[in-house]
Amino acid sequence: MKIVHNVLKDGGLFLLHTIGSSRSLVDTDPWIQKYIFPNSMLPSIAQIGKSIEGLFVMEDWHNFGADYDKTLMAWWENFNRAWPELSKSYSDRFYRMWKYYLMTSAASFRSRRIQLWQIVLSKNGVKSGYAPVR
């Protein structure tokens, strides 16, 4: 975060878009680490707060994780519908892995164990206040 702070212009805004966890963890599911997001971790509110403390003013924190379940299920429906054509280029193993990823991710969002956040940060605060558009 120090690098972002150093390169952000005065008056500029920084949008942090991330999947986050309801708990502070330092590791990720081994399967996700191996096949989907190598070297990843899902930060918690506390971990993000600690990383921005003294560097940024938090202008807005939007949690739309409950909606992301629908996105993942739509991706699954599109993928499954297109599978007859895709199967010419991809193996059944790929199909099972992609299905597993989409379904377990959707379940994690549905259970609210993980969230999808967009956090707007500024260096010194927006003088007139920040008005989020939703």
From TrEMBL:
Family under the similarity heading: Belongs to the CFA/CMAS family.
InterPro entries noted in UniProt: CFA/CMAS, SAM-dependent_MTases_sf
GO molecular function, a single term: methyltransferase activity
Source organism of this protein record: Candidatus Colwellbacteria bacterium RIFCSPLOWO2_12_FULL_43_11
UniProt lineage: Bacteria, Candidatus Colwelliibacteriota
Keyword Transferase: yes
Family matches, as Pfam families: CMAS
Signal peptide annotation: none
GO BP terms in the entry: lipid metabolic process; methylation
Record keywords: Lipid metabolism, Methyltransferase, S-adenosyl-L-methionine, Transferase
Keyword S-adenosyl-L-methionine: yes
Protein name, UniProt field: Cyclopropane-fatty-acyl-phospholipid synthase
